[in-house]
Structure formats: C-alpha cells, structure tokens
Write a structure and sequence with these properties.
337 residues; alpha/beta; Spo0b-associated Gtp-binding Protein, Chain: A; Rossmann fold; 2 domains; 6-stranded mixed β-sheet; 5-stranded mixed β-sheet; 7 helices; 16 strands; 26% strand
Length: 337
C-alpha cells in the first residue's frame, strides 16, 4: 500500500572560504615571502537513507537547509578548514527531484545510501599559490566560489506502519482525523472511506509513524464483497493492525462483529491473523453498556486484554494511551526486524 508524501525544501551548500594575502615578516628572513593560505571548501548538503524513518514529517518542520561555509585562509601558510556538511535523513524509498528542471537527482533505495544534492563551493587560493620565478610577491588571492543552491522536491512512496480495520462506521476515519493532519471524509453511511486515508502521527518518543484508515470490511470481503480483496492486500503489507469495534452499535454484538472480521482475515491469509493486533472499542461516549461488558469479558478470556483499549475520538478519552501502546509495539517489531 503505497502513498505519496511530498515535501519541498531549499538547500544551500556552503560557500568556499577566501584565500589570504599575507607575507612572512620574521626579523632574520631577509626577503620574506608570501605565506597566505587557501580558503577551505564549503560544506556539502547530503541526503542519506534511513530505514528507521517512515515519513518525511520531520523534514517539514524546516524548509531551508544550509551547510557551513569554508574558513578563510590565514597567514603563516594556514589553510582554512572545510565547512561542515549537513546531512538530511530520509526514509528509504525517497525520490529526490530538482524542482526547477524536474530532473530526478537520486532514488534512495538503501539504508545509509548517501547522495550529495548540493556541492560546496571551492575554497579560494592564497597568494602563496601564485608565486613564480618572475612573480615572487603576489599581492592577490582568490575569493571562494559560491556553493550550489537548489529547490528540491522529495517524494516518498509510503508503506503504512499500522492498518486500522473494522466494520464500516467503526470510527476509523474520525480517529485518524483526531491524531493526525489527515482530513478523511466522515459521514454516517457505509464505505465513507473509498480508498485508504493516510495519517502521519508524531510519536511521544520522537519517532513518527504512519496510520492507514482502511475501508470498512464486511462479511465476504475475502471473496470480493464490499470493496473486496484489494484492501485486504493493502492490510497485508502493514506491520500491525488496529481492530476497531463500535461499542454503540446495537443490531449485532461486538463479539460477533469482531469474530466475523477475524474470520475474513483468516480466510484471506494466515499472515494477517498472525500480525500484532491491538483491539479497540470505539465510541465509548455513547456505548451500549451491556454489549461493552460482554466484549470486555470476551477479550479477557482470549488473553488479549493487555492489548485492549477503549476510546472516544470525540472526547479523546483513551486516545493518548492507545497511541503510546502503538508506538511501543512498533518499536518492538522494528527491533525484531
């Protein structure tokens, strides 16, 4: 399940340092001589692939990236230090484009892959570099060259970390609109979500993760009912599942609806039922108390009550605790590889 996350950034490599005009002036050196050092090269702007990142969210907080300029040359044959590079870490799968030319500069496909997207300017030569048999005391030096400057477009084809599943109108779209900047269509009719909605969430521990609000599943989905198997394929590619069960629904018990969705996952692929799952009772601000009580007992008997949460996206009750658990589980999954 791939989505496009797009960020525009302005990058400026460091300018080269200027060369120095200087002469030796020791008392016992009769003729002296030029000793102005060269300026240092400017720092590069580098983009590096990082498999620990899954979104471009962090980069959106800063639109301009500047590397350091090189130090100017000094007297006594001292060359300037090269300017510090700046490294921008992006998820693997990021495509880098020059916005002005629409040229693809690079496609980051591997962890630790590095690409110089803006080259630092060359440092200017000091006057010691211009000495010749006919010109022993040059009075000039070069200025440093300017570093490259570009507007880049970063495009990321995302694979969601977490897939939110459940019946239509289980509260998936409302939840994703509350915890992220996504603005999915929300209404009280089946299949409000016609395609997966993507939400990027900034975690409490600093790392961001991607939620995908899946279209509601119904009985027979594994055989193409409703929106069919195309979204079951999407779900298959997520790292873990949030299973939403509406606690305000009356026509069919929460236990029955939970079992039916699990059955659809099992019929489609055992890989889906083996995924880490967090079970979430939604809409507890308007819950059916008896139904919710029976569901609590059911998940307790299944032994999954440690990964069971009750939330209201409207009042935000329980939402923070759920996000913390999602982040903790994702960290475990990523560490296990």
């Amino acid at each position: 399940m791939k989505f496009i996350d797009i960020v525009k950034i302005h990058v400026k490599a460091g300018d080269g340092g200027n060369g120095c005009v200087s002469f030796r002036r020791e008392k016992y050196v009769p003729r002296g001589g030029p000793n102005g050092g060269n300026g240092g090269d400017g720092g590069d702007v580098i983009i590096e692939g990082d498999e620990g990142k899954s979104t471009l969210l962090d980069i959106t907080f800063k639109s301009i990236y500047k590397a350091k300029r090189g130090e100017h040359g000094k007297g006594k044959d001292q060359h300037g230090k090269k300017g510090d590079d700046i490294v921008i870490k992006v998820p693997v799968g990021t495509i880098i484009k020059d916005l002005e030319t629409d040229e693809i500069i690079a496609d980051i496909t591997e962890h630790k892959q590095r690409v110089v997207v803006a080259k630092g300017g060359k440092g200017g030569r000091g006057n010691m570099m211009f000495v010749s048999p006919t010109h022993r005391a040059p009075m000039y030096a070069e200025e440093g060259k300017p570093g490259e400057e570009k507007i880049l477009l970063l495009e990321l084809k995302l694979i969601a970390d977490v897939g939110i599943i459940g019946y239509p109108n289980a509260g998936k779209s409302t939840f994703i609109s509350v915890v992220s900047a996504a603005k999915p269509k929300i209404a009280d009719y089946p299949f409000t979500t016609m395609s997966p909605n993507l939400g990027v969430v900034k975690g409490a521990y600093g790392e961001s993760f991607v939620l995908a609000d899946m279209p509601g599943l119904i009985e027979g989905a594994h055989a193409g009912a409703g929106l069919g198997t195309q979204f079951l394929r999407h779900i298959e590619r997520t790292k873990m599942l949030l299973h939403f069960v509406d606690s305000s629904y009356n026509e069919e018990s929460m236990v029955t609806r939970y079992k039916k969705i699990r059955k659809e996952l099992e019929k489609y692929s055992k890989d889906l039922t083996d995924k880490k799952e967090i079970v979430v009772a939604t809409k507890i601000d308007s819950k059916n108390e008896n139904d919710l009580f029976q569901f609590r007992e059911y998940v307790k008997n299944l032994g999954i009550d440690k990964n069971y949460f009750e939330i209201s996206s409207v009042t935000k009750n329980g939402v923070k605790q759920l996000l913390l658990r999602i982040e903790e589980e994702l960290k475990k999954i990523n560490e296990e590889g």
